[in-house]
Specification:
The chain is of the alpha+beta class. The protein has 2 domains: 4-141, Fructose-1,6-Bisphosphatase, Chain A, domain 1 (2-Layer Sandwich), CATH 3.30.540.10; 150-259, D-Maltodextrin-Binding Protein, domain 2. The chain contains 7 helices and 14 strands. The protein has helices at 4-25, 44-60, 92-97, 163-179, 189-197, 216-224, 252-259; strands at residues 32-34, 41-43, 66-68, 82-90, 103-110, 113-121, 126-131, 134-137, 140-141, 154-157, 182-184, 203-209, 228-230, 242-247. The chain has a 7-stranded mixed beta sheet with strand order 3-4-5-6-7-8-9, sandwiched between helices. The protein has a 5-stranded mixed beta sheet with strand order 11-10-12-14-13, with helices on both faces. A hairpin with a 2-residue loop joins strand 5 (103-110) and strand 6. Mean pLDDT is 91; it is low at 262-267.
């Protein structure tokens, strides 16, 4: 893909447009529905924001498929060609509760690999963007933290709310508390990955399969900010990997050892 700069411009427009739609209904009495359980909410703001994002992408790239969480968007990332991955409100539980940490997330993908990404947090006023040149927050270059001692690491766990995921979350959080410095669970995977990219967190961990709209944009931000992203076995992470370990790269082997099967990191 030789037009990554043009695609990043579209990503910024799309994420900001979708974020404005979501922000208009934030902290209002918007009706809340549930999908797979009481902690899996969806609102009309999610749907409206995704429509706005898809409309903006379609204006410039009408033939590209849009992969997204809501409505009739594609649910799988095409293995070949160009596509776009959208999460209109990543962190809907936060959004519904009035917590400002949620993101409108969009990534441009080629042959299954991200080439540009934006995580826009409209309620906080922060916009993270990444292409081949690096990662920025509000237009200023950012990079991962420089901490290298595992006992100093602040680690965020990303898990779903189904019973199986909650059981694994319990085991992972215990390991974080015992083997690392501090635990976070900010309630928005894309927000947490953005925080790794700018050094606010040292690592993000999940041991369960995650949807591409929950991870792809943030993983690209971390990599372009100088970090490392693998699956729990230390293999290079992809959108269809099981689990994710995203870190500043300085104690990544220790994270894989703690949460995977101890294999060494390669091709991260």
């Amino acid at each position: 893909m030789d037009d990554s700069e043009g695609r990043l411009s579209v990503l910024l427009d799309a994420a900001r447009g979708g974020g404005r739609v979501a922000l208009d209904s934030f902290r209002t009495a918007i009706p809340v529905e549930t999908k797979d359980g009481p902690l899996d909410p969806v609102t009309e703001a999610d749907r409206a924001a995704q429509r706005r994002v898809a409309e903006r992408i379609g204006e410039s790239y009408p033939d590209d498929p849009v992969v997204g969480e809501e409505d009739d968007a594609e649910k799988r990332v095409p293995p070949e060609g160009s596509s776009w991955i959208v999460d209109p409100i990543d962190g809907t539980n936060n959004y519904v509760a009035g917590n400002r940490r949620w993101a409108t997330s969009v990534a441009a993908v080629r042959d299954g690999e991200p080439v540009a990404a934006v995580n826009h947090l409209p309620a906080l006023g922060d916009t993270y963007a990444a292409d081949a040149d690096g990662t920025t927050r509000n237009g200023e270059s950012v990079s991962v933290s420089d901490r290298d001692a595992p006992e100093e690491f602040t680690v965020n766990a990303i898990f779903g709310m189904d019973p199986g995921s909650r059981g694994r979350l319990s085991r992972v959080t215990s390991t974080i508390v015992e083997a690392f410095g501090d635990l976070r669970h900010v309630g928005s995977g894309q927000s947490a990955l953005s925080m790794v990219a700018d050094g606010e967190l040292d690592a993000v961990v999940s041991t369960v399969p995650l949807d591409p709209w929950d991870t792809v944009a943030g993983a690209h931000l971390v990599r372009r900010a100088g970090g490392t992203v693998t699956d729990v076995r230390g293999n290079r992470w992809r959108h269809d990997s099981t689990g994710i370990v995203a870190s500043n790269g300085r104690a990544h082997d220790a994270l894989v050892e703690a949460f995977g099967d101890g294999k060494s990191v390669r091709d991260a």
